[in-house]
Write a structure and sequence with these properties.
This protein is an alpha+beta fold. The chain is about 40% helix and about 30% strand.
Length: about 200
């Protein structure tokens, strides 16, 4: 074989050219694979379900903290104390109608194939007042806390490459707020009774 290559140097050049070409093709495929992975990650949506826990505001908002659009495919809300009680939006499992003729400020229903741009958010539920919270507002807010605590929100969304993501969110954070509000109500009630 070595004798043949010495007598025919063009064959050696051809073999080496073939070898270099194969290595170049392999490197190009690897680079393309890395670039494709980078492209997918650079347009990845990152969801955030924000629980609004202010004294004058109750709500849940969906936010896209990623760099690419989030395409919401479905929202399912399940009552963990009664799994047969299921809905496609939070508002369906909230108190209705509200007490004292109050109304919701905003809510979303029927979220399917809805795009949420990077850095944007929208309210799944919103109940707020611009004033100091009245007793009527607090009464409704506490009822909402009671209603949302056992719920589980299941969110399915896609990125622009049709990669699907699924997440579940719970609302147990409201339990501590509700306990604190009920304790305060009880103390106020006891104080008013002892003052009379």
């Amino acid at each position: 074989m070595m004798e043949y290559l010495r007598n025919h140097p063009e064959a050696l050049v051809a073999v080496l050219a073939l070898l270099v070409s194969c290595i170049a093709i392999w490197q190009a495929r690897e680079a393309l694979s890395v670039q494709r992975e980078h492209n997918h990650k650079s347009l990845l949506p990152i969801h955030s379900v924000n629980r609004l826990t202010y004294q004058n505001k109750f709500g849940v908002e969906l936010e896209n903290r990623g760099a690419g659009p989030m395409i919401v495919q479905s929202v399912t809300v399940i009552d963990t104390t009664n799994p047969t009680r299921e809905a496609t939006s939070l508002i369906e499992l909230m108190p209705d109608p509200l007490k004292h003729d109050m109304k919701w400020n905003d809510y979303k229903k029927g979220l399917k194939n809805v795009a949420l741009q990077p850095g944007k958010k929208f309210d799944l539920l919103l109940f707020q007042t611009s004033e100091k919270p009245s007793l009527e507002f607090q009464d409704n807010r506490n009822d909402m806390w009671r209603a949302i605590i056992p719920l589980k929100l299941q969110l399915v969304y896609e990125d622009v490459y049709k990669n699907s993501f699924e997440t579940s969110e719970y609302f147990t954070i409201y339990q501590g707020l509700l306990d604190e509000a009920e304790k305060k109500e009880k103390e106020t009630s006891e104080y008013n009774q002892s003052a009379n």
